[in-house]
Amino acid sequence: MGTSMSAETTLVEESGVSDIRRNDALEEIPILDLGPYLAGEAGAAEKLVAELRYAQENIGFYFIINHGVTPSLFDRCFDELKQFFALPFEEKIKLKFDTDMIGYIPPKSTIYETSTINENTKKDQNETILIGVEFDADHPRYQEGRRFRVPNKWPQSLPSLRETMVEYQQTMMALGWQLLPLYAQALDKPADYFNPYFENEPHCIGRNSHYPVVDLEENQFGIAPHSDHGFITLLPLSEVPGLEVLTQSGKWIPAPHIPGAILVNTGEFLNRWTNGRFIATPHRVVSPAADRYAITFFYSPCDEAVAEPLDTCVGPGNPAQYEPMSFIEYLAFYTDGNFLHEKRKRGAAGDAALAK
Question: How open is the CA angle 110-116-121, to the nearest 5 degrees?
């Protein structure tokens, strides 16, 4: 059974299935232990499904421990990012992102205008390198001319960055696949329900960021209050605090650093798929006390996957709240609303400006 940041935990039985009730669950981020589940212990999956369901319906965030990923991989990723962001700006800007959302995003490039919980008006104080799924240069995806599916942009002076981040990407994709049966069963679907949407080229993105120590203006953040775009987000936290989560009671709480743990949260695409049942919790990053780095990994289905509210999440008195939408359509909506403001406002002229 997973543990909580608080000692006040109760276990009750409903319809023969263990269900977790935590008195402080809305104010604390629960910790789920994957060890027994990954070891195939009897009853471990059912217990973990109940814990995951409770976390996703009541706070939208949880930590996983004993997940099988070595902490040394996280450390190597953080070290590589420190070297990358320490490069001269002139070298980093050669990798500048465009409408395909791959490459380097300079500081003050984003305003999360799609946020529904804060009127974000100031540009965020972070710099980022976005890394998509790494394919071979001759992969058919690159030949289709489809938006977002372009080769990654790597700095020539740091060849080890590519090697390390691709290893991290493949590791997180394998971990995400192991979580899919838990999500399916937590939503009262067969364990393999989500598999077809992820087994053929899932759309995964690594948002690797640097949050410098800066004086922020009023209503300005490292990242402003927002919810993530995808299915789930996997985030091993660094030792430097800064991430805060908005609970259902309206309280901002810090996400603590738990050595070796990975923070997991629901994205807006899964929120739509579950008809709002699994919460896409708003979060933000405040100014850190020291340089902070993040290796955020968005695990999402293939481009063609359509989020139509599940039949287990609708019913009498609870009609579907969202129209069906494919993942690639939702990613375009989210991207254009938060990153490509000039593109949206100036149309073709904005496209030309961003391509420079």
Answer: 40
CATH number at residue 159: 2.60.120.330
CA 117/CA 18 separation, integer angstroms: 34
Q: How far apart are the first and last CA of the chain?
A: 52
CB 6 within 8 A of CB 256: no
Report yes or no on 4 lying in a domain. Answer: no
Query: In this structure, is residue 340 part of a structural domain?
Result: yes
Helix, strand, coil percentages for the chain (3-state, nearest 5): 30, 20, 45
- 1 assigned to some structural domain: no
CA diameter of the chain? 62
Q: What is the pTM of this model?
A: 0.87
Residues in the chain: 356
- What distance in Å separates the CA atoms of residue 224 and residue 121, rounded to the nearest whole number? 9
pLDDT of 223 over the 90 cut: no
Tokens of 344: 């949206």
Per-residue pLDDT tens digits for 66-111: 999 999 999 999 999 999 999 999 999 999 999 899 999 999 887 7
The answer to the question of residue 195 being in a domain is yes
Could you give the angle at the alpha carbon of 255 between the alpha carbons of 253 and 261, nearest 5°? 155
Query: Cα–Cα–Cα angle for 110, 170, 111, nearest 5°?
Result: 5
CA distance 260 to 248: 27
Q: Is the pLDDT of residue 170 over 60?
A: yes
Can you read off the two tokens belonging to residue 153? Answer: 């942009």
Report the candidate in 274, 300, 309, 330 with the shortest Cα–Cα distance to residue 57.
274
Q: How many structural domains are present in the chain?
A: 1
Integer angstrom CA distances of residue 310 from 142, 253, 321, 347: 32, 31, 11, 35
